[in-house]
Design goal:
Layout: H1 2-8, E1 15-17, E2 20-22, E3 30-32, H2 37-44, E4 60-61, E5 64-74, E6 90-97, E7 113-119, H3 136-143, E8 150-154, E9 158-164, E10 168-175, H4 179-198, H5 203-210
Antiparallel strand pairs: 1-2, 3-5, 4-5, 5-6, 6-7, 7-10, 8-9, 9-10
Length: about 220
């Protein structure tokens, strides 16, 4: 169940962009601002949802046009579950770059690059491991920054790098043979953006927040 929730965090958009299909693998409980009012009502009805910063990479990155920016209302699945995932309603943001063509009649596909932003108190490293996993040297290898805790959680044709910026968790997803290189390039570009907002916040402080189990105050 935890893995299903985790994979549902990946937005695979729906529609036709530039003549190419983008298929969805999205739970019913996740709806964008373009959805029906009742789908986003859980978010619009809450006055005190946790704040975060929505990051993206401009209108074009690494030759890929930005094909969508989504503001989504995430509602956790009914019933108890363990592992990663928000336990309460929250907003998220996703910037999509490029398109893909699914294979076969039932196959789905992911765009070459996605950048998701989540409230870090709702999505952080705590379900995966201890604070000691987040090492400055390894984080520097992923982002080019000694100040930002980061981790690679998927590697290969599908890639996922998570950056823990204190208030916001920034997640880079890539698909395809150029995925590892593209994920690294995107993570470094995002780290430069994030660094301008960090002020004097230290790596130890950000690492402690990245494994906090206190959750969000709503």
């Amino acid at each position: 169940m935890a893995e299903e929730v985790m994979r549902s965090w990946r937005w695979l958009a729906v529609g036709m962009i530039g003549g190419l299909c983008l298929f969805a693998v999205v739970p019913v409980a996740r709806a964008s601002l373009g959805s029906a009012q009742h789908d986003i009502a859980p978010c619009t009805a809450r006055r005190h949802l946790p704040p975060f910063t929505a990051y993206e990479l401009g209108t074009r990155f690494a030759g890929l046009p930005r094909t969508g920016v989504l503001r989504d209302c995430f509602v956790p699945p009914p019933g108890p579950f363990s592992g990663p995932g928000p336990r309460d309603v929250t907003w998220t943001s996703t910037a999509i770059y490029g398109t893909c063509t699914p294979e076969g009649t039932e196959g789905g596909c992911g765009p070459p690059l996605e950048v998701q932003s989540w409230p870090e108190c709702d999505r952080n490293y705590a379900p995966y491991g201890p604070e000691s996993d987040l090492k400055p040297r390894a984080s520097y290898g992923l982002t080019g920054s000694h100040r930002l805790p980061a981790v690679s959680l998927e590697h290969g044709l599908s890639n996922r790098i998570e950056i823990y910026a204190g208030r916001t968790t920034v997640v880079v997803f890539t698909d395809g043979p150029e995925g590892p290189r593209l994920a690294s390039r995107a993570a470094r570009a995002l780290a430069r953006q994030i660094a301008t907002r960090l002020g004097s916040t230290s790596f130890p402080r950000l690492r402690a927040l990245a494994v906090s189990t206190r959750g969000c105050h709503r």
